[in-house]
Amino acid sequence: MNEIVVDVMYVSDRLIIIKLKIDPVRVLNLIQCYAPQTGCDDQEKQNFEELLEDKSQDPNTLVMGDLNAQVGHNRYGYEEILGVHGWGSRNAEGENLLD
């Protein structure tokens, strides 16, 4: 198992990155995150979004965790990135996430 884990990086209280060697030449970056809640300060949300965007530039990156966003069931305009199992309606954080 240790041969698979290349690196573990603490980025912030809301973000950690684990680099996994998935074959002899490719590395997968797993980003585990916990986004600020809906009621948090807008600046805190913006700082988190900027940090996440900066750290997820590599195409071999998978972002997972609690993004504190509701994307809802409407896929119109987001068919390429949003699956069919959404529920409810989209909130402002969901709009930000999809954009």
Task: Give a brief outline of the structure.
The protein has 99 residues and is of the alpha+beta class. The protein has helices at 42-55, 92-98; strands at residues 5-12, 15-21, 27-34, 61-66. The mean pLDDT is 92.
How would you explain this protein's 3D organization?
- By secondary structure, the chain is of the alpha+beta class.
- The mean pLDDT is 92.
- The chain folds into two domains: 68 residues, no CATH class; 30 residues, no CATH class.
- The protein contains two helices and four strands, in the order βββαβα.
- It has a four-stranded mixed β-sheet with strand order 1-2-3-4, with no helix packed on it.
- It is globular, with a radius of gyration of 15 Å.
